[in-house]
Design brief:
alpha/beta; Rossmann fold; 6-stranded parallel sheet; 14 helices; 14 strands
Length: 353
C-alpha cells in the first residue's frame, strides 16, 4: 500500500442551492490544453447538468498577448472595462475566480470595490514554477499570492497536502476540492501499439521546464520512452534526447489509446497541485511512477498495486512494471466528476449576504 494522506474521492458535502447563476472567471481557458482548463470545462458541464446556469469568462473574449516564455498561453490586455460589463450582464449569484492573472485580478477588484464575496482556487504553484525558470526565491511570489487570496471567502485546493502546505505559508479559508476522471473516455481498451521496444514508459502533459521532464528522460530504463504533449521546451528536449519518441499533442480516444498502450505512466513533476493525468492513466489501466510529492501522494493515497512512489524515480518506474492493470482501473473508478462539481458548489459563497 502507498502510505500517504487520504484524498477525498466520490464523497462530498451536500451541494448548495440548485439553480444558481455561477460565474467563473479564469485566465486559463480554451484553446489552452492543460489540467486547469479540463477541470473547469468538465465541472461547468456537470454544474449545468445539475440545473445551474454557468458562465465562464476567459481570455478568448478579450484582446490578448502571448505570455512571456510561453507563447501558446494568451493573456488578456486591459480587460477590466469589458469584464465588468460582462459580469453585470450575467448577474451572478456566486463568483469564482479561478486564476491570479489579468482577468482574475480585475474580477477581484470588481468584487472588493462592491464589498461582494467570492471564492478563489490555487491551481498552479507559481512560486515553484518561477524558481524553476528564473531561480527567484519563492518567498516574494508567495507573499503576492497570499495577498491575492486573502479576501477570498474560500480558497479551493485539490489535495490535503497542498492545503497543509499553503496553511504553513499563511493562507486562510482553505477548502478542499478534489478532481475526477472521464471513465467513459479513458478506458483500458483499445490500446495503441507504439511499435517500439518494450516496456514503454510514457509522459503526458505540458512540455515545460517546471514539469521536470528531464528527470524522466535521463533515466536508464529498459525499453522505450514516449512523450505526448507540446510546450516551450519541446524543441530543446527533442535535440537533447534523439532516442525518445515525441508524439505531439493527442486528444480524446487517441489520447486514451496512448495511455493504455504504455506499460508505465511516469509523472516527474515536483510542483503540480494535483495531476489529472495520473487519474487518466490509471483509468486506462496504466500504473503510475512518480516522486512522493503533492499530487501523487494524494491521488494514490491508500491505493494497492497501482504504481510506485519513490525519491528514486528509476526505482519507482521499475517497481510500477509489476503493478496490476485491473487494480489501476478499479481505483480510478472511485473518482467522480459529479462529486467534484458538488464539492465546488458547496464551497461557493453567495455574492451578497
Amino acid at each position: 500500500m502507498l502510505d500517504s494522506p487520504k484524498l477525498s474521492e466520490t464523497t462530498s458535502p451536500a451541494a448548495g442551492p440548485a439553480g444558481q447563476r455561477i460565474l467563473i472567471v479564469t485566465d486559463a481557458w480554451e484553446p489552452q490544453v492543460n489540467g486547469v482548463v479540463r477541470t473547469l470545462r468538465t465541472v461547468a458541464d456537470e454544474l449545468r447538468a445539475m440545473g445551474h446556469v454557468v458562465e465562464v469568462i476567459g481570455p478568448d473574449r478579450f484582446h490578448t498577448i502571448p505570455c512571456p516564455t510561453y507563447a501558446t498561453i494568451r493573456l488578456a490586455v486591459l480587460p477590466r472595462q469589458r469584464l465588468v460589463r460582462l459580469i453585470d450582464e450575467f448577474r451572478p449569484d456566486a463568483l469564482h475566480i479561478s486564476t491570479e492573472g489579468p482577468l482574475g485580478i480585475s474580477a477581484r477588484c470588481w468584487a472588493l470595490q462592491r464589498n461582494l464575496r467570492f471564492t478563489t482556487a490555487y491551481h498552479t504553484r507559481f512560486p515553484e514554477y518561477l524558481q524553476a525558470r528564473t531561480g527567484l526565491s519563492p518567498s516574494i511570489p508567495y507573499a503576492l499570492l497570499r495577498r491575492f487570496h486573502d479576501p477570498s471567502s474560500g480558497l479551493m485546493v485539490a489535495t490535503e497536502s497542498l492545503q497543509r502546505d499553503l496553511a504553513a505559508h499563511g493562507f486562510r479559508n482553505i477548502r478542499q476540492w478534489s478532481r475526477g476522471v472521464d471513465l467513459d473516455l479513458f478506458r483500458p481498451e483499445p490500446r495503441h501499439d507504439w511499435g517500439l521496444p518494450g516496456p514503454v514508459f510514457l509522459y503526458v502533459g505540458r512540455v515545460a521546464v517546471e514539469k521536470n521532464i528531464g528527470a524522466f528522460l535521463d533515466l536508464d530504463l529498459p525499453g522505450s520512452k514516449v512523450v505526448v504533449g507540446d510546450g516551450p521546451q519541446l524543441a530543446a528536449l527533442q535535440r537533447r534526447y534523439p532516442d525518445v519518441h515525441f508524439a505531439g499533442v493527442l486528444h480524446g480516444p487517441e489520447l486514451s489509446r496512448a495511455y493504455a498502450g504504455a506499460d508505465v505512466f511516469v509523472f516527474p513533476s515536483l510542483t503540480d497541485t494535483f495531476g489529472l493525468v495520473l487519474l487518466e492513466a490509471l483509468a486506462c489501466g496504466t500504473p503510475v511512477a512518480a516522486f512522493p510529492v503533492t499530487g501523487p501522494v494524494d491521488v494514490l493515497a491508500g491505493a494497492d498495486n497501482v504504481g510506485a512512489l519513490d525519491h528514486d524515480l528509476r526505482a519507482a518506474c521499475l517497481r510500477a512494471l509489476d503493478a496490476n492493470r485491473a487494480a489501476c482501473r478499479a481505483y480510478a473508478e472511485r473518482f467522480s466528476w459529479h462529486a467534484c462539481a458538488e464539492r465546488f458548489v458547496a464551497n461557493l459563497a453567495p455574492l451578497q449576504e
